[in-house]
Amino acid sequence: MSDSVRSDTAPGTGSAIRGSMAVCALIGAAVMASADEIVFHQILGWHHFYDRSTSGVGLLSDGLLHTAELLALVAGFFLYADLRRRRALASAHAWSGFFLGLGLFQLFDGIVDHKLLRLHQIRYGVDVTPYDWAWNITGLLLLLIGVILALRAAHRSGTGTAS
């Protein structure tokens, strides 16, 4: 097998940039899901992924979420290793993808899971408004960091903002 870099997957190309961002967004979303699962579900015990049934169903839903996040982490790291092996990792874009994944997971969970589908709330027995604000503002900040990093990376690589 040749160690040469294919011209369409070199770190500065659109394919490498999109691949780096997508792979690291997957890893970012899985990391945030893991943090949510470990801190809020297990350590604090504030909620389960699905709280609209029995505690057994809630525990099962946590196990399924944990399985999904671990599969996403493993897949993400295999894809990341493949990018590195092919010398197609655009690191600045990868970091932007990581933060975009963190923020997108957080916002999806806060808006879709908490409010639209009402699968669970952050916490029960208290006014959830400050928790919702903190959760969603944190997600927006992570997303904003990802966007800023993506714009800086695009500017540095000369790809513009339309990559």
Describe the 3D structure.
This protein has 163 residues and is mostly helical. 71% of the residues lie in helices and 0% in strands. The chain has four helices and no strands. It has helices at residues 14-43, 55-85, 91-116, 129-157. Helix 1 packs antiparallel against helix 2 (55-85) and helix 3 (91-116) packs antiparallel against helix 4 (129-157). It is flat and about 50 Å long. It starts with 13 loop residues before the first helix and ends in a 6-residue tail after the last helix.
What composes the largest sheet? none
Helix content: over 70%
> Globular, elongated, flat, extended or rod-shaped: what is the shape?
flat
Rg over CA atoms:
18 Å
SSE order, one letter for each helix or strand: HHHH
Alpha carbon gap, first and last residue = 30 Å
How would you classify the helix and strand content by structural class? mainly alpha
Overall average pLDDT: 89
Q: Could you tell me the strand content as a percent range?
A: under 5%
How many strands appear in the DSSP assignment?
0
The number of helical segments is 4
Low-confidence stretches: 1-8
Quick rundown:
The chain has four helices and no strands. The chain is mainly α. The radius of gyration is 18 Å and the shape is flat.
